[in-house]
């Protein structure tokens, strides 16, 4: 299997484990970062699907399909977006690289950018 596919699958598995709150998710995410490059920030690849907003809330929610080239059921995850400027210019279907963190029990999108072609 090509290294990029293995890396993408490993990142996707870490994100899914983190999103589901599985034990050891933090260590899985840390292991992914160590494999790539200890000094580099790890971005997960996905496909931006949609944005929604909870009634009465100023926060938005981004819906991102993780590892869009892989047939994984339930792989569209929802992330709270505290800064709407992160999503500016993104259209549904855009391939992206993103970072999310677990903040107060929720998955929060902290960085997102279109993926270079």
UniProtKB/TrEMBL annotation:
Keyword Signal: yes
Pfam families recorded: CusF_Ec (PF11604)
Taxon lineage: Bacteria, Pseudomonadati, Pseudomonadota, Betaproteobacteria, Burkholderiales
Organism: Acidovorax soli
Domain of life where this protein originates: Bacteria
Secretion signal, residue range per the UniProt entry: 1-30
Keywords for the protein's UniProt record, in alphabetical order: Signal
The protein's name: Cu/Ag efflux protein CusF
